[in-house]
Amino acid sequence: MVVCMRHWALGYIGLPWVAMGRGVQGFDCYGLFMRVQKLYFGVDVPDIGIDPSIDVIGKLRAFKHHKEFSHWRVVVEPIEGDAVMMGNGRAVSHIGVYLAVDGGGVLHCDDIGGVQFTPHGGFGGHENNYEILKYLRHETK
User: Fold this and answer.
1) Domain map (residue ranges) of the chain
2) Under 8 Å CB-to-CB from 102, ≥6 apart: which residues?
3) Architecture, CATH, for domain 8-138
4) How confident is the model at residue 130, as a pLDDT?
């Protein structure tokens, strides 16, 4: 994929996915989300500490019911820095950060492509089977 943007996010594109990754040696989706929120948007998102050995349903429950998400509200039109909740179907299983560059898209990290920028229209195809389920904005914005 060709990325045509001049943005701080370029420094992250291509970094590897690592289970429970929390630094530039590798990220998982939540680790990247935490870092970007803190460094670029001033939001200190705590590590919710989901055990990587539990099954997908257990991870989804822990993620959905964590108190941190009471500080975020659903919005219809995303702005730079909003959380992008993604999944396959109705259940959230992936998180990224909305970037308002190149027509808008999502900076996220998965085990297939590592850290990547997916343009807004690039979800749901053969390269990326995630669907955007909702956008969330932190209460400080």
Assistant:
1) 8-138
2) 3, 4, 5, 117, 119
3) Alpha-Beta Complex (3.90)
4) 86
